[in-house]
Amino acid sequence: MQTMNIMMSPRIIGLGLLLVGLGACAPVLRNENGVRVVGDIVRGDEERHVTITSRNPHRIAEIARTDPEADVRQAAVRELDDPSVLLAIAETDAHKDVRVTAVGRMESRKDLFWIVMHNTEPMARLAAVERLTDPALLTEVAMDNSDAMIRKAAVERIKDPARLFSIAMTNSESFVRISAATRISDQALLTRIVYQNSDTVVRRTVLRDIQSQTVLADVAVHDPDEDVRKTAVDMIVSQEILAQLALKDKDAMIRFLAVRKVKNKAVVNRIARGDADAMVRKAAVEQVTDESVLASILEMEPDEEVRKAAVRRMSGESLTAAVSGDASDEVRLTAVDQIKDQDQLSEMALKDVSSRVRAAALARLQSQDTLAAAALHDKDSTVRLAAVARLLDQATLEQVALKDARVELRAMAAAKVVDQAVLKDIANTDSHRAVRQAAVERITDEAILEELARNSNPNVRLLAVTRLSLPRVLGDVARNDPFPSVRKAAVEKLYDSAVLKEVATADADPAVRKAAVQRLTDGEVLTAVTEKESDPSVVAAAVARLKAIQSKQVIQHP
Fold it and tell me: Which pLDDT tens digit goes with each residue over 281-340?
């Protein structure tokens, strides 16, 4: 392989570099009267770059005031120092970005204050606030500006606690008052706000920064607004103060909030047994751990919800003894969920006066004797259903399936019976289709299914056919059953081509013939059907079947 050296003249190299440089430079869109703009014509503002090339202050000011393009005016403003020109632009320019840029160049406190108070562009006013540092001017803005957001922005630049306090107490805008209050850390000032401010939201906000438990307790008792008092209670951690509030406050809501935080068991027990308000007693009961106290509450408490709360805290024999005589079904129902002792549950399942309680107890029982007794003898059908749902004893299930007066109970029991002869009896004799179906669906003995397939009741025959798998019996039913629906059900389980051909060409019912056609795989038979069949739906089924066979979409069966 030979190496060739190509020598290029300096003129050619220079020309190439010039062409590359020209290709890399953005087009000059404008270059006159002290303004140069370069950029991509297609991409527009994304690639525009403005440069003020004039060094003449008067020309720069003229560009800043009068140029038709906002980004050119903005670039000129960045070169300005004249306060009067900057003020005029900040006040009058049509574009907010130009105004904001002008404000960013201003130094005069007087001009900045004027912008904040009077400018028509909110972003320019905010930019001016950010450049103000004089506390007196910022306070005036916070108190008097027509825009609440500008007021708040001014507050956020004030550090003097006295000024912030004044704003928090007297500003006409609630969220400005809140903003000022949240910037105060002096406890004396915060306490004054808590006691003196007329705005409940401000008081609630400040309470979260109050460190004095005494102040919080006083507010919890004496503030005229309940929400403020509730907030105060939330912030109290002193157990002594919480106990006093829980025991003595006139407002039930305050007692309720306080008792939930009390840890003194004696105080909690006293409130659980003696508070005038059921909501407060319930909150206390939810913290009681002494079972003897809970038992006494169950015995004496008039309110059902409080007794339920007590039940949820109890367990064992004391619970059963306490609730056995309770007049409320709801309380006894709650107890069922807490009781684990099977003997206690059996007692409630058999003897409780409420069917709901008996059913709930049965749902947690394992004792087959108790479940059987309830399934056979309880007068309420919902209770018997609950028993049958957990019952395993076959003798009892058979008895229920054969004798219960309720259809749903017989069907549920039949669906759990194992004995094939009993299932056959139910399928033959029950008066309701749902029970017969439940029985047939449990039968696996082909001889019994064959016998049922020849039953005098067409509904029984139909149910049996759906469970049959013997081709001989299915073929016989498909050709000879007097009811079309039974014949059709048999056909839909057949693969015997001879029987299917016979049914497809000879059955009296077009729906049965169509069902047979849809299972045929013999092309000659299907062609004959298309030529001789009088029913259009059967013909259409035969044509569709032929197409499926020709496209090999049909599975051949022996």
Answer: 999 999 999 999 999 999 999 999 999 999 999 887 777 777 777 899 999 999 998 888
Residues 27, 38 contacting (CB under 8 angstroms): yes
**Is residue 388 within 8 Å of residue 397, measured between CB atoms?**
yes
Q: What is the average pLDDT value for the chain, to the nearest integer?
A: 91
- Give the model confidence (pLDDT) of 6-34 as tens digits: 344 444 444 444 434 444 457 889 999 99
Q: What is the dihedral of CA 334, 339, 345, 347, to 10 degrees?
A: -80
Question: Which of 139, 130, 221, 237 lies closest to 180, judged by CA?
Answer: 139
Q: Nearest Cα to 496, choosing from 524, 469, 514?
A: 469
Contact (Cβ atoms closer than 8 angstroms) between residue 517 and residue 526: yes
DSSP secondary structure code for residue 26 in this structure: P
Q: What is the pTM of this model?
A: 0.69
CA 426 to chain centroid, in Å, comes to: 48
Cβ atoms 490, 480 nearer than 8 A: no
Residue linked to tokens 């929400």: 227
Contact between 349 and 373 under an 8 Å Cβ cutoff? The reply is no
User: Residue 281 CA to chain centroid, in angstroms?
Assistant: 33
Assess whether pLDDT exceeds 50 at residue 372: yes
DSSP string, 231-280: HHHHH---HHHHHHHHHH-S-HHHHHHHHTT---HHHHHHHHHH-S-HHH
For residue 415, the one-letter residue type is A
DSSP code of 10? H
Structure tokens at 470: 């013997």
Closest CA to 508 of 527, 522, 487: 487
What residues have CB less than 8 Å from 405, skipping those under 6 apart?
A: none
Tens of pLDDT, residues 154-187: 999 999 999 999 999 999 999 999 999 999 999 9
